[in-house]
Structures are given as C-alpha cells and as structure tokens.
Amino acid sequence: MRFILPLALPLALPLALALALCANGPAARPAMNPVVHFEIPVTEMDRAVRFYEAVFEVRLTRQEVDGYTMAFFPRADGKPGASGALAKGDVYVPSKSGAILYFDVPSIDPVLTRALAAGGRVLYSKKDIGEAGFVAEIEDSEGNRIALSAPAD
C-alpha cells in the first residue's frame, strides 16, 4: 500500500488542480447574458422585414454591412438580453434545424395571431412551462424556426 499512495497522489493532483481552475476560472465571473448579437438569415429582405415588424410590433433599421443587407432590431444598450438583425447574403441560409432564438414577449397569444396573419406557421403551440411562463415556436416568412417566451400569468 505504501507504493500505491505515492503513485495515486500525482494522478489526483492534476485532477484537483483542474477542478480548482474550473471553479475559479470563467464560471466564477459575475453572471451575465453571454449572447450580444444574433443574425437571422433571410432570402427576401422586404418580406422578412414586413413579417418581423408586424409580428413583434417594432421598426427595423436597414443597413449594408460588409456587403450584406441587414435590418436591425431595436437595441437598448445597458439593458439585459441581446439584439440582432435580419441578414441577407450568400452565407445566410434560412433553416428550421439550426439554433433557435427565443424572443421575449409580454403574451404569446397575440404574437401567434400576428405571425399567422403575416404568413408564418405555428410549429409548437403555446405550452405552459410552470413558473418560467409559456413558450411557443413559429416558422417565419423565410423558413426559420423562431421561439417565443412569455412570463407566467
């Protein structure tokens, strides 16, 4: 047994050091929302802008960025959450199978109504998720899967 302990101890030290570094590393930073910007791929910018402005009742601001056509959602600097843009170009391909963005809304039902009226589809009906509120998913005018999140009543 005398020989096992000295052999096991050097193996245990790197594990303990790794665990200590993880505990004091990036995870120990103050809480924050890590996403700062998103881009939703579109194939027809005018149609997509009409859809998102109607569904979320916001005004998007169009701009060319690095040769790509973009339409930016409102941004509130210093506030929680992220903002982003619709983006059109060769590297932007709409999809229902990629990352899913959750839009925070006051109430899901009116948003679903506006999405349907604007040409979208309901992919996942409104679901009560307890204290966290409600969620649903829609397909936008471009074929992207977009999620909705609303607080509990």
Poorly predicted spans? 1-22
Question: What is the gyration radius calculated from CA atoms?
Answer: 22 Å
Question: H/E order of the elements?
Answer: HEHEEEEHEEE
Largest sheet: 4 strands, mixed
Helix count from the secondary structure assignment: 3
Strand order, biggest sheet?
1-4-3-2
Helix-residue proportion: 25-40%
Roughly what fraction of the amino acids lie in strands?
25-35%
Distance between the termini: 63 Å
Please state the overall shape, judged from the principal axes of the Cα atoms.
Answer: globular
Mean pLDDT equals 86
Helix-and-strand structural type:
alpha/beta
Query: Based on DSSP secondary structure assignment, what is the total number of beta strands?
Result: 8
